[in-house]
Amino acid sequence: MPQADTSQEAAIRQAAQLLLAAEYVTALTGAGISVESGIPPFRGPGGLWTKYGEPPMDGYQRFLQDPKKAWEERLAPSGASQEIRDTIARAEPNPGHYAFVKLEELGVLRWLITQNVDNLHRRAGSRNLLEIHGNSTLVRCLNCTARFPLAVISFDVLPPRCLQCNGILKNDTVAFGEPIPGDVLEQCWRVAGHCDCMIVAGTSATVTPAAYFPMQVRERGGTLIEVNLYESEITQFCTVSLRGQAGELLHALAQTVQTLRKF
Ligand SMILES: [Zn+2]
After folding, report:
1. 140 CA to middle of ligand 1, Å?
2. Can you tell me the distance from the alpha carbon of 56 to that of 60, in angstroms, rounded to the nearest whole number?
3. Active centre residues (catalytic)
4. What is the 177 CA–ligand 1 centroid distance (Å)?
5. Residue 66 CB partners (closer than 8 Å, separation 6+)
6. Of 111, 141, 148, 175, which one has the fewest beta carbons inside 10 Å?
7. DSSP characters for 77-137?
8. Which tens digits make up the pLDDT trace of 100-123?
9. What is the pLDDT of residues 188-214, one digit of tens each?
């Protein structure tokens, strides 16, 4: 329907103008942006947790009680962890991920906060990236918070140890019951504190602490731009809502920003 296209084009243009008028743009992304890369959501039909059961709510406590056992379960060649590793290894960044890279390269986007652990923003090339729930391809030292790629760590003796301080290494993905790593959370608050325009893409932004960031921007008089398939809890607070596939919409948004900036 041409009419619908026109209104969506107008919404994309309005969003692009908001981005260009803002002083400090950030973005918050969630699972919806990785669906088009073939990463299934955790919950719902086809979800990994639907298939294997939800991870224990006290996952972090269990890890601390017996890190060796936690690593043995995680390294097992089958089960949820293995399927997540396989799925992530097969996935490729999609146009939505690349649109954020472009916005960063244009000097428009300052920071990207993601709830995803799939490493796709990083693989696409995003640099100012805050992975609030960790990164499933990394391990993190519980003592000094240094992070290392899984590939450089020896698992001959469990639990694996930090290359810098010999502390116990945990997978970087934040477990249930585990606090968001302090270095990342602190930087998120700092960034949200400066932000006057936030793109909220592929997330209903209902899970805390991520949910606080757009609200903080909103309360200080900033604008929110939503990119989601469906209306969600965040919609009522957004100045512009782009409804549809995140990849397509974000690509169009980045293109429009680039075009408008030439004038
Ligand atoms: Zn360490």
Report:
1. 8
2. 9
3. 133
4. 21
5. none
6. 148
7. SSSHHHHHHHHHHH----HHHHHHHHHHHTT-EEEEEE---S-HHHHHT--SEEETT--TT
8. 999 999 999 999 999 999 999 999
9. 999 999 999 999 999 988 878 888 999
